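Problem 12. The chain below contains 398 residues. Write out its predicted structure in token notation.
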Amino acid sequence: MTDATPGRLGKPPTRRPKDLLYSESFRTALYQVALAAGVVLLGLYLYQNVVENLGRQNIATGFGFLDEVSQFEIGERLIDYSSRDSYGRALLVGLMNTLSVSAAGIVVATVIGFAVGIMRVSTNWLLQRIALTYVEIVRNIPVILQVIFWAAVIRNLPAPRQALDLWGLGFLSNRGLTFLLPAAHPAHVWMLAAFAAGIAAASVAARMARRHREATGRYVDMLWPCIGLILGPPVLVWLGFGAPHELSFPERQGFNFTGGATISPEFVALMAGIALYSSGFIAEIVRAGIQATPRGQVEAARSIALRPRFILRYVVLPQALRVIVPPLTSQYVSLIKNSSIAVVIGYPDLVNIGNTVMNQTGQAVEAIAVMMTVFLAISLVTSLAMNFYNRLVAIKER
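Solution.
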């Protein structure tokens, strides 16, 4: 007979502690919590052990040294710094130098890598062989040797008086790369802001055009409108400030140059070494991504008379980027970490300055912890940014 007692029908069964213990999800969570607690306890034990050992040797611990006066100069910096500033400020200078050379290296490696990768799938036999030779050379020579090689090459260039003239745009000498710049003007800051606003407006317009195409099936060519949205605002700001066009040309003066801007030999050597090394791997990633696109889809696009740029934009790239972006992220992170090789050629990056701080203060554990934390943070931010971009370009199934 069915129990029809009111209040008992549909009552969920009560979970006993024994049933909870045998739950797979509960045990999985319990194991993870236990493992995390074990790692934390092990870290605390090791840290306490280090502190006690350093205390017996009368070596100070903690991060208070970051507020002490550094008492050393840094030859290349992007922010104001002097020997009267703190160790923390010195490490900040090193961080800015690391970010600058890494950003330049990523741009150069990406441009060269994509160009060589496209050459690798070219139908031109000569271009294919040139690209293959380049990739095999730069990938199979250790990056530290490439950095040292370029440092030696640049340091053996002619002195400023006999510097190589770059078609009137700058000079290449053993002092580094010197090039012209627009003369300082308040309009430049506003032009940069207008350029950023133009990029945002072009992105919004392109997205609206895509939604219109998906809703109506009508294609709206946004190439020239987007170019106008990106370049138009800076040009209008430039005209609004009276169209300043003065340029600061570098000129030889004594044993150095005046005017323009100069990039140190160490910066050029480090950037060239890490960028060329990474470009070989990026080229192979691009080649694999392009070849991952089924040939039949490209031929089908040609059969309906699609323009080559439409085939590249709507057929090849959407599928190639699914293969390209994830490994490309790893190459960017590796390039940033390879910038620590700067210590071998004397470029004042974070690791080089961190070593100086460590030698002066004797607080090796804290100095190394700061460097490790900073590189971890940079790598995580880079990965998050690339993962966000990967979600934007991913093909969404409907």
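Discussion. The longest strand covers residues 170-173. Students who got a different answer should revisit the alignment rule from Section 12.3.
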